[in-house]
Specification:
This protein is mostly beta strands. 5% of the residues lie in helices and 53% in strands. It has a 16-stranded antiparallel beta barrel. A hairpin with a 7-residue loop joins strand 16 and strand 17.
Amino acid sequence: MRKLGFLVGMMMVLLFVCGMLNPCWAGFKMELNEQTKAEIGIWMQTSYQWVEDGKINGDQYEDVNDFMIRRAYLYLKGDVTQYVSFFTHLASDKVGMEKPTGGSLDNSGMGLGTGVAWRDLWITLNLDEALKVQMGRMYVPLTRNYGTTSTKCMLTADLPFLQGGSRGGIFYAQKVGRDDGLTLWGNPLDGRLQYRLMISEGVEGNANPEDNLRFVGRLSLSLLEPETSWFNKGTYLGKKKVLSLGFGMDSQDDLTLAGNEGQDNTVWTVDAFFDHPVGEGAVTLEAAYIDIDNCTQGSPNFYHDLEAGDDADNWYINAGYLLPGFIGPGRLQPYIRYETVDVDKKNETDFFSGGFNYYLKGHNCKLTADYMYVAPDNPEKEERDIFTFQFTVGF
């Protein structure tokens, strides 16, 4: 009862803090002159997860109770001249997350588990709205959900499992969803079309003995209101009418995967996103299919069978509805998600999840509760329940 009382008290304090935040997603802005401007802000996400049979102790599985700092981002962006801008993220992710084999996640150089790192850092030459040249560390422009969507504005509690959500890892070569390289991108046809073409490092080290470059591209077509920014939203909360169709492709040749030389990695994906007000509420739908040939990432996984060198199909669908009106000080948005990972010559794993967001100041301040059921076909892997409670604030 003492623990319950303490948690209730903490919730009341957090709700009070949220009510004091500005409703606009914007940091502190500075203007040095007519052309030189900057903005700085912070974004924080704390989580609790209960994972059924989430770790191994000897030859026995044990449940996990895991409090963590899911994400902490300090950003600085600005314009240096009319044609040159920049963006940076100093970030930490999954700080304090417990690993299935015991101990905490620890990759300080990437700001993953411990440490703080340059998660994003790029400089952009803005030649025209239809042509921008961007160089540095940035999103890999492959999927919509982790190639364009900001993790500050997701519909669900986290990304798809195969793109680093919940307890999962990312299936493609990356530096926490990013890569170092150069990207040409822009928004021709009055923003109806957005293209992103990237040349980057991809797989490095012994797995890429000839140091071959990686080539990634993405096209998205907006049939209603255009999405023209680098970061999109996973749900617009009824403030925008969006119907977007996307296609992405990722390729890197002559890799050494799972001990096999001369392997070519190819990934392609198609996706659709719909977000539209319905009366005083709003509906959000998103679906994607991903085809993976010679996966570059992965080791024996606690939840699914995908490893380096495997071929696989992955697809998911999300749906959410922002209820009309307020419930107390905020608005409620229930959602559901289904995801599957089907590995060739191995097994399929299904992920069923559902939950809700409770918005006190839009994406600036929200509570999220999520339940996930993991159902592997592999008889050597356990079915698992994962419960997540998450608090997000930022400006």
